[in-house]
Design brief:
By secondary structure, the chain is an alpha+beta fold. The protein has a single domain, classed as Gcn5-related N-acetyltransferase (GNAT) (Aminopeptidase, 3-Layer(aba) Sandwich). It is built from seven helices and seven strands; from the N terminus they run βααββαβαβαββαα. InterPro entries: Acyl_CoA_acyltransferase (IPR016181), GNAT_dom (IPR000182), UCP028520 (IPR016890).
Length: 198
């Protein structure tokens, strides 16, 4: 059966939270407030849906965001312009079915039009071979390591150069063509504005 990747909807955040907090030690837990912060501020927040159920999600931020992750800060200290994958979670029953690969293809399609680098991290203290191999198969390499002080976890800081970006930037600058497949960055709005329609 096939699945679709699309923007998350606010009423799905409880299901996203459950997916995240049941993912195990390779993903840091979230609370509802932090997840709503992601919903309000993430440039990319998409879910995979299969048979009417969520099969996973991916959250990402551009380098100009005010994202407060220490791993995001590690990249920001070293690179001026990048897109950061904060987390990807695939439901355990859907792992190995191509959902993660579809997410990475989708987020790269989004990022390469706007950023020269795609960045992520892999926690090294929890059996990282499958995640390292997954990232390596997408052309990522380790740019360094970071110990996350708040949780004492060592992370491999993974980076990939997006080879399409220089040509796109030279050809289109900040004015990408208005094509349906190009999409536009999420324009997060405060929840109050969405609720009142203003």
């Amino acid at each position: 059966m096939s699945f679709v990747i699309r923007d998350v909807r606010e009423h799905e955040l409880d299901s996203v939270l459950a997916l995240n907090n049941n993912a195990g030690s390779a993903i840091l837990p979230l609370d509802p407030a932090k997840l709503h912060d992601f919903y309000d501020n993430a440039e990319y927040f998409r879910v995979a849906e299969r048979d009417g159920n969520l099969a996973g999600f991916l959250v990402g931020f551009g380098s100009a965001s005010g994202h407060d992750s220490c791993n995001f800060a590690w990249f920001k200290q070293r690179y001026p312009h990048f897109f950061y994958i904060d987390r990807i979670v695939v439901a355990s029953r859907r792992r190995g079915g191509g959902v993660g690969r579809a997410f990475y293809a989708d987020v790269q399609s989004y990022a390469e039009l706007r950023y020269p680098l795609l960045c992520s991290e892999v926690f090294l203290d929890h059996g990282a071979d499958s995640a390292l191999l997954f990232h390596g198969s997408f052309g990522f390499h380790e740019a360094g390591q970071n110990v996350m002080p708040e949780v004492d976890v060592r992370a491999s800081m993974m980076m990939k150069e997006l080879c399409s970006y220089p040509w796109i930037r030279q050809t289109y600058g900040d004015a990408l063509p208005d094509l349906p497949w190009v999409g536009r960055p999420r324009r997060p709005q405060p929840r109050d504005s969405r609720a009142t329609g203003t």
